[in-house]
From TrEMBL:
InterPro entries listed in its UniProt record: DSBA-like_thioredoxin_dom (IPR001853), Thioredoxin-like_sf (IPR036249)
Entry-linked SUPFAM superfamilies: Thioredoxin-like (SSF52833)
PANTHER family (UniProt xref): GLUTATHIONE S-TRANSFERASE KAPPA, THIOREDOXIN SUPERFAMILY PROTEIN
Organism: Vibrio aquimaris
Coiled coil: none
Entry's Gene Ontology molecular function annotations: oxidoreductase activity
Keywords: Plasmid
Protein known as: DSBA-like thioredoxin domain protein
Length: 214
């Protein structure tokens, strides 16, 4: 008998460790597929909710926010790229790469859950940003991505224009902050077990076995 667990994933699209964390989870679940499956729900956590519409140079942003040196930035990008390659995800960093506001993207992601396409949209957005270097704050870019997955463009446009969806993103983020989540990725299993950070799939396998009591 296969046991089903719930996994709530709190993340941001411009966070490289979030896609690495998910890919590690994906690999862990595949190793346990004979005994375990997961219903995954994605939740918003904007790393830069006040980011201006034109975005900022990614390297300059990281240097200003975290005090990261150029050498450390180069090393981090190399590490992330290698981890991505091992997990089947391609990072294409460049010196002129920008970081963008993700509020509208999260509005679409919240709504896409009701259409059973949240995971597909999440993966498409990660790829659009990190692999294709697209501006995922741009409405046309978001609508093109959503439409390519079979979502109705005119409905998606309404979601992006509807202030109540923006408020839903904000209130959801506040709830997670109130719950003590202040960094991503964060995974909450069956609403009570927290796994923080992009853990290797071996550690996730052990954690899932223990939590699910397989």
């Amino acid at each position: 008998m296969i046991k089903t667990i719930r996994i709530d994933l709190i993340s941001d699209i411009v966070c490289p460790w979030c896609i690495i964390g998910y890919k590690n989870l994906e690999h862990a679940l595949s190793k346990l597929s004979d005994s375990l499956k997961a219903d995954i729900y994605w939740h918003p956590f904007e790393l830069n909710p006040m980011m201006k519409s034109e975005g900022e140079n990614l390297r300059e942003h990281i240097a200003e926010k975290y005090g990261t040196s150029l050498e450390a930035s180069i090393a981090a990008r190399q590490t992330i790229s290698e981890l991505g390659q091992d997990l089947g995800f391609e990072f294409k960093f460049s010196d002129d790469m920008r970081i963008y506001n993700t509020r509208k993207a999260h509005q679409l992601l919240l709504w896409a859950q009701s259409e059973s396409l949240q995971l597909d949209l999440e993966m498409a957005l990660f790829q659009a940003y990190f692999t294709q270097r697209q501006d995922i704050s741009n409405t046309t870019v978001l609508l093109n991505i959503a439409e390519s997955l079979g979502l109705e463009r005119n409905v998606c446009e309404l979601v992006l224009q509807d202030e109540s969806w923006a408020e839903a993103v904000s209130s959801t983020e506040y709830q997670w902050l109130e719950a003590g989540i202040n960094a991503v990725p964060a995974m909450i299993i069956d609403k009570k077990h927290l796994i923080s950070g992009a853990q290797p799939n071996e550690i996730l396998v052990e954690a899932l076995i223990e939590i699910a009591r397989l």
